[in-house]
Amino acid sequence: MNGSLHSSSNVVDIKLKRGPAGLGFNIVGGVDQQYVVNDSGIYVSKIKEDGAAGLDGRLQEGDKILAINGIMLADRTHKAAVELFRTAGEDVELRVLKKFPPHMNGPSGSQPEQQSPVSLWGILAALAGAAALFSFLYIRHTKKHF
Q1: Which element (helix H / strand E) includes 96?
Q2: Cβ density class 100-113: b for 16+ within 10 Å, e for less
Q3: Residue limits of the PDZ domain (predicted)?
Q4: Closest among 12, 45, 13 to 26, alpha carbons compared
Q5: Protein fold of 11-97
Q6: Contact 88, 116 (CB under 8 A)
Q7: Cβ atoms < 10 Å from Cβ of 84
Q8: Which of 14, 86, 82, 112 is nearest to 54 (CA)?
Q9: Does an H or E element contain 64, and which?
Q10: For residue 85, how many other CB atoms are within 10 A of its CB?
């Protein structure tokens, strides 16, 4: 593979050694069951903590697998992709797009990050504290001592 399909720095090659329980992750997607709107790619749906991928730590839920052992996964059915993973051998090289897609058809393992209301309250409290300190210093400075 020459990498011309995705020249982004988000594309990485990950080598895994198949363990007793396989590679340790589940996939979704394919031309017959799109997981991402207008994208028939193969995506990682679940990482098993004690599996090969979980112990390695580089593959994450939501990553798009572009190829396995140099075989592109584009335009394949889900079943065909699963068969490629099952017959890939002990040493497996994955080409992965490290980008969580914004438009999912199905449920995902993580929720979108939301800004915590605590941070807004923290800012407001800091501003109120600064205003109180300023007021105290101003009154103390302008107050006449007898």
Answers
A1: strand 91-97
A2: bbeeeeeebeeeee
A3: 13-100
A4: 45
A5: Pdz3 Domain (2.30.42)
A6: no
A7: 17
A8: 14
A9: strand 64-68
A10: 20
Q: Tokens for 1?
A: 């593979």
pLDDT interval class at 4 (50, 70, 90): very low
Token pair of 139, please? 């009154």
Q: What is the pLDDT of residues 92-144, one digit of tens each?
A: 999 999 975 454 455 444 444 444 555 776 777 788 888 888 787 877 766 65
Burial class of 30 by CB neighbour count within 10 A (0 to 12, 13 to 18, 19+): buried
1 has pLDDT over 70: no
CB-CB contact of 10 with 99 (8 Å): yes
Pairing state between β 42-47 and 64-68: antiparallel
Q: Token pair 């409290």 is at which residue?
A: 125
List Cα–Cα distances, 20 to 16, 17, 52, 84, 117, in angstroms.
13, 10, 9, 18, 45
| 87/85 Cα distance (integer angstroms) | 6
Alpha-carbon dihedral 68, 91, 98, 119, rounded to 10 degrees = 150
Q: What is the pTM of this model?
A: 0.63
